């Protein structure tokens, strides 16, 4: 791989602690308290929601009654850790908002171990964000209380120290969850990318994003050089935009063909589909890439598979790898990640 600049990749989203370690419930899991109430609103299948008042009890419940463990998380923070895993030291910097509490200290420790530089906006009044993950059979449900992550602002991004990192980076990665927090910060990065012909990578993040944050999402679309999502996110994009198709390849083609601000780069739309082939669309056409097969018995936890895919893929872009290799790196890193608990990567480090 070619050498990369210091902090070549700059990532922005919502840091969360406590991706509370997923717990496996079986069909007849105990139904109690806030957790049970929360589960009632989670339909079958993978889901991700923002916590409302009625869900807030779930975090203590997970910790106290189900011995859940704490893991550093947040989609793009996982992606940033994963990209740093594959790139030379000091390649990745991550921005987001945290509180001034012990949870923020745990996050700092976790990212330090991963060699990831973070520039957090610290909010004195709000708690560090939390994410509860519950696994029922093969499905996972996530419930996020954004806390201080919800108070990220343009002032932090534009502060001289942070903006210097923005100017120094060669690639940007933004997680779609940040649309719920600070679209102006996303737009500032997007415009900076287009103006300087730097690749802007965007993740759709969750099915609710194209529906509940459609206008904010659409404002970022012209700036996507690479847009990454999974099949549920592609389908919800199609539904929100009245595309009369449920064909993933057609949706990927549509995403690739949307109007583009930076005309010097052709857009690439990448849709992952779990164990099914990864779909990659450009204006030139659609290709499918079979995933790296792994025996079911080796899978520990698929939470964050998509974050890991985005990490390997983006690390490839930063290192100047061809598109097919970027996809392969994404699948390789995702395969490593699903053998660990939560969105983590094995140590000692494996090399691609
Ligand atoms: P998300 O986590 O966003 O739902 P996917 O489920 O599509 O994303 O997974 C992302 C990538 O992770 C896939 O393209 C694939 O490369 C890898 N992956 C996920 N699940 C498996 C699996 N069971 N076996 C092998 N690879 C997997
Ligand atoms: Mg999936
Ligand atoms: Mg995902």
Characterization of this structure:
- The longest helix is centred in the last third of the chain and has 15 residues, at 323-337.
- The protein has 13 helices and 14 strands.
- The protein is 37% helix and 24% strand.
- α12 packs antiparallel against α13.
- The radius of gyration is 19 Å and the shape is globular.
- By secondary structure, it is α/β, with parallel strands linked by helices.
- α7 links the parallel β9 and β10.
- The structure holds adenosine-5'-diphosphate and magnesium ion (MG) (2 copies).
- The site of one magnesium ion (MG) has 2 residues, from loops.
Task: Set out the fold topology.
Layout: E1 9-12, E2 16-25, H1 33-41, E3 47-50, H2 58-65, E4 70-73, H3 75-86, E5 92-99, H4 102-113, E6 117-123, E7 129-136, E8 139-145, H5 154-158, H6 160-168, E9 171-175, H7 183-195, E10 200-203, H8 208-212, H9 214-220, E11 226-230, H10 231-240, H11 248-257, E12 268-273, E13 276-282, E14 285-289, H12 305-318, H13 323-337
Parallel strand pairs: 1-5, 1-9, 2-7, 3-8, 5-6, 9-10, 10-11, 11-12
Antiparallel strand pairs: 2-4, 7-8, 12-13, 13-14
Helix pairs in contact: 1-2, 3-12, 12-13
